[in-house]
Amino acid sequence: MAEMMLKTAIENKTAKVGVIGLGYVGIPLIQAFVKAGFSTMGYDIDQKKVDRLLAGESYIGHISSSWIADCIGSKRFVPTADMRRLAEPDAILICVPTPLSDSRDPDLSYIEATAQQIAAALRPGQLIVLESTTYPGTTRDVVLPILESGGLKVGKDFYLAYSPEREDPGNPNYTASGIPKVVGGIDSDSSELAQALYGQAVVKIVPVANCEVAEACKILENTYRSVNIAMVNELKVLFDRIGIDVWEVIEAAKTKPFGFQAFYPGPGLGGHCIPIDPFYLSWVARKHGLITRFIELAGEINTSMPLYVINRVTEALNEVGKPVRGSKICILGVAYKKDVDDPRESPSFELMELLLARGAVLSYNDPQVPKVPKMRRHKTLDMTSQPLDPVFLASQDCVLIATGHTAYDYDFIVKHSRLIVDTRNATKNVRSGREKIRKA
Ligand SMILES: NC(=O)c1ccc[n+]([C@@H]2O[C@H](COP(=O)([O-])OP(=O)(O)OC[C@H]3O[C@@H](n4cnc5c(N)ncnc54)[C@H](O)[C@@H]3O)[C@@H](O)[C@H]2O)c1
After folding, report:
1. Per-residue pLDDT tens over the stretch 110-150
2. Is the dihedral of CA 205, 211, 214, 215 positive or negative?
3. Which end of the chain, N or C, is less surrounded by CB atoms within 10 Å?
């Protein structure tokens, strides 16, 4: 009965959709459902975020403030920090963080806290979907018992599914509604309802047998990236030693029309997903007495990249008779990848720490990140972005390109800099002044 009513409400688009966690994943998801014609509610414990949204202000680079203001004005999006209002939506999608603890184990505290908030307001007829990236078994073993603790039963009173988010921030070709969505339910009714819901807002639904397959699918996708990036990072070091340009090799290899996908080396892994999610799987493996050697090795290679880059900077400065200590070094780009404003887990901060430890006179520029945010791991980095004018560039002993933002004018940068270390092959089209460029 409850299931039929919810299904009809989804089909009629009268079902209200709630999203918990109004961050890089939650806001684009709200956008997909609003565009599909649903009324939405957004929940976040961060009152400042809620206030900014209520004031019609976006804090996510690729979501415009005018769109937020429009949805708030028309009440198609109601943000709140009041978790007692979790009984209002018919479907609740959970998009809270899943970081690693200090000992690099999964930190599910955000998911658990959210499940408790939902449990306190849970009413018959609601569909709950976990979207946060996590290890296989989380929805059934962690979320379900909390939701059922108040006496309501899954499959009878409420419904539960897992559907991973596949957001690719900074990629203008894909929005949340344009990316196929994998959906797995705790039971068949939950699966059907979740498929029906996403089917209204997303281009294609990929149903899988259960929550565990959907959870494993997301971790496979991210582990695949981590391992392949590690492989090209390893080859970069080897090819550099024997005088081959790894980027030229990849450009040539990618002309093969089948069986090869290009991955690119860099100064290390960044972002909230690729450096973190594979370790959720290693943790599960350890619990089952197994070791995920690919994941561990990839992690080892990728985390060694900042040190490799610093060695290249040291060599480059050495060539012009300078030590790192006392040299003025400017890092270009602290966002974790090009054209985004998200600096989480960015390898640039590791580069900064390593350079500061070696006595460099450090500065940075990033048009997307005006100030280094407060971070748990890099507490002492308190810097603001410097303007890139000819006088400033000429005053630097070395300019280190860590993030290849499209907005940078690389001809201008090379023209006015004395020495450039490029970790992204961002200067590949620069013709003049190439003798000043070293790749790393
Ligand atoms: N950012 C991405 O590109 C991306 C892509 C795919 C998957 N993911 C996954 O999606 C999940 C969310 O990532 P994100 O990048 O959107 O994180 P985020 O930090 O940008 O946003 C999470 C939000 O959740 C809020 N929050 C935390 N605890 C809460 C609670 N108990 N109740 C309500 N709100 C709470 C935080 O205040 C924050 O605003 C993670 O599991 C991540 O791995 C992220």
Report:
1. 999 999 999 999 999 999 999 999 999 999 999 999 999 99
2. positive
3. N
Q: Is 337 helix (H, G, I), strand (E, B) or coil?
A: coil
> Using an 8 Å Cβ cutoff, are 152 and 118 in contact?
no
Nearest 5°: the CA angle 248, 250, 251 is 65
What is the phi/psi pair of residue 371, to 5°? -145, 140
Burial class (CB within 10 angstroms; exposed 0-12, middle 13-18, buried 19+) of 113? middle
User: Torsions phi, psi of 158, nearest 5?
Assistant: -140, 175
20: CA distance to ligand 1 center in Å?
Answer: 9
What amino acid is encoded at 381 in this protein?
Answer: L
- Nearest-atom number in ligand 1 for the CA of 164 is 7
362 CA to centre of ligand 1 in angstroms:
31
DSSP characters for 199-252?
HHHSS-EEE-SSHHHHHHHHHHHHHHHHHHHHHHHHHHHHHHHTT--HHHHHHH
